Amino acid sequence: MKHVRTITLLLLFGLGNLYAQETALKASMERGSEIYNDFCVACHMPTGEGIPFVFPPLANSDYLMQQRTASIKGVKFGQEGELVVNGETYNNTMASMGLEDGEIADVMNYILNSWGNSSNEMVTVEEVEAVTKD
Predict the structure, then answer these.
(1) Among 44, 60, 73, 83, which one has the highest count of C-beta atoms within 10 angstroms of its own C-beta?
(2) What pLDDT sits at residue 99?
(3) Nearest 5 degrees, angle CA 43-CA 48-CA 54?
(4) pLDDT tens, 103-121?
(5) How does DSSP classify residue 103?
(6) Tens digits of per-residue pLDDT, 5-21?
(7) Helix axes 68-77, 101-111, angle to 10 degrees
(8) Fold annotation for 2-130
(9) Average pLDDT for residues 29-58, to the nearest whole number?
(10) Full-model pTM
(11) Within its chain, how far is the Cα of 46 from the centroid?
(12) How far apart are CA 15 and CA 94, in angstroms?
């Protein structure tokens, strides 16, 4: 009987932890949606589809999913030069938006889990803090 209680407690703890992670991600995405609408929507559009040959899509973006750290770096410090997204080459400049690390984590969580993107790992403030310019 003692083992059944232990297993039950472990399962409940695991489910509680999963619920807490889902709740944290949902809250981060809600904040990220507001940041996206304030800073990103003009170029990347409300549907994340970008502007063909000018601003790359965030929707169903292979680049975002395969280049997580580079994507964070682009949001944090801005980006210029060639970038290949979904097989198309873009060569433009994205200025730094001056966002704080927590805001960057939130907007990244939003775009990594919207418009056909799905990330199993939540972007944290600590992860953003670790990304440097060089």
Answers:
(1) 44
(2) 98
(3) 40
(4) 999 999 999 999 999 998 9
(5) H
(6) 665 545 555 556 666 78
(7) 130
(8) Cytochrome Bc1 Complex; Chain D, domain 2 (1.10.760)
(9) 97
(10) 0.85
(11) 16
(12) 40
